[in-house]
Every structure is written in C-alpha cells, then in structure tokens.
Specification:
Elements: H1 5-12, H2 14-20, H3 27-48, H4 58-66, H5 73-89, H6 92-97, H7 99-107, H8 113-128, E1 132-140, E2 148-155, E3 160-170, H9 179-197, E4 204-212, H10 216-225, E5 240-246, E6 252-258
Parallel strand pairs: 3-4, 4-5
Antiparallel strand pairs: 1-2, 2-3, 5-6
Length: 260
Amino acid sequence: MKYDVRPFLKIKMPGLLDLLGTQNISWKTINKNFGKKLQRIKDELTLTQKPIFKEATFYSVLMSKHYKTGEGDGMFDWYSTLFQSLSSNLNPVEKALIHHSIYNLLIEPDKNYLNFIGELAVLNEIKKQEGYDLINIEEQIQKENNTTADFLILRKHDDTNILVEVVNLHFQEIDIDDHERIRRLIESKLNNKIKMKFINPLYEYFLQPVIWVKGENDVEQLFNLYDKSGLPIKNVLAPFTYFSYWETSGKYEHHFDRIY
C-alpha cells in the first residue's frame, strides 16, 4: 500500500508545511520511510498477536493521530503548535535555512527525532525575543577543523554573532530522584561538549541543554535539581524541559520552560 503523508500534514499540522514553503523536499522518500515503518509494525503484530510497545517516534505520533488512538495526541498538539509558532517567528530567509532540519525530522525513524524537535524548540524561544536573527545553521566553530554548532545567531543591538549549540539530554529511562547522579551526568556531558568542540571558537558561544524526561514527577525533580544555584559551567544556559497539562476546557497547555 502506498502512503501520502503530505495531505495529512496539510490538514492536521499546517505549520510544518508553512515552514517548508516552496523549498523542494523528497516526499517520495518520506512516504516510503513511513510505509516501511508502518509495515514493520503490522508484521510484528501479525506475528505476535499481542500489543507492541515501541519507543515513540515522529512517525508513531503521526500514526497515532491518523488512527485516532489518542496515545500521541499531546505530543502531536505540541509539535503542531511549535511549527505554527516557528512559521510566525521566522522570516523567509530563516525558514529556508531550517529546511534540512525539517527534512531530517520527517525521515528520522527512531527516538533521535527528539533532537531535532529540541533544536527547533530552542530556535523558537530565541526568535520569540526581539532583536535576534538566525544567520546560519551548522556554522563552523573554529578554523582548525570543520566542527559545527547548531545555530549562528545575530544579536542586533550590538551586532554580535553568537554560536548556539543545543545539547539534548535523554533521561527518560533514568531515575531522576538521584540528584547527585543526575548533576554528574549533566555536567559531565556539557563539560565534555565544550572540551571537544569549543577549543578556539570564532565567536561568542553558548550551550543550551534540553532535558527530556518521562513524566510529571521527573519534571518536578528537575525543577528541584538546581533550586539553590544554577549550573556551575561558564557559557551554559539554564536547561529547558518540556511538559504539558490537560485543561478542563479540553485543550492541552504546553510548557517548554527553563528549570531555573
């Protein structure tokens, strides 16, 4: 069976298509990957005759919405809201710059898609502020090698170029209650990233952590993690995390907030 993802996105997630604009994209590849993913699930279901539990992917969120299972409705709603916000906040030149990121999101078949979501969510938070322009993505950090940072941002009030590297930390399967362990993991990851990538940067730079956790209790623990002081690492911004609430009005309230 052949699948066509684009008409579904046009109706249910129009902000994503708005971001793509007139940029060329291989819908044939996207549809093929989507079909393969769905067929694998069908084959496993036929073989086992039991419910199949898989890590969430962008495809699984789309499929959940398409088949109205309700399982991925919250994330689908956030993604749709995020893309619509980005479409409003980015100018045509900036939209063209993230074309490849959107394509990667659509063809990424596993949980790594959250890395792209994290990058786009951070970019959206930057663009919500007045006075910042996206100049480039995957910008070279230093002349000595081809290592790149996710974004090159222009701070317009003082005409300063700033490199922004988004660091996605996946703690969905880790005990967040162990604060000391979590602090060590976060700070080790960030220190290693600085040592490996930002040896002699051409511009001012910042690391922006995004911490992904599995539930409301873990989000609360994250907010308690650095309640007395922030991360003790230079050039690292306060981490973001995502959580949502189901309102009595029948709508989701989404939060992409810093933990301190």
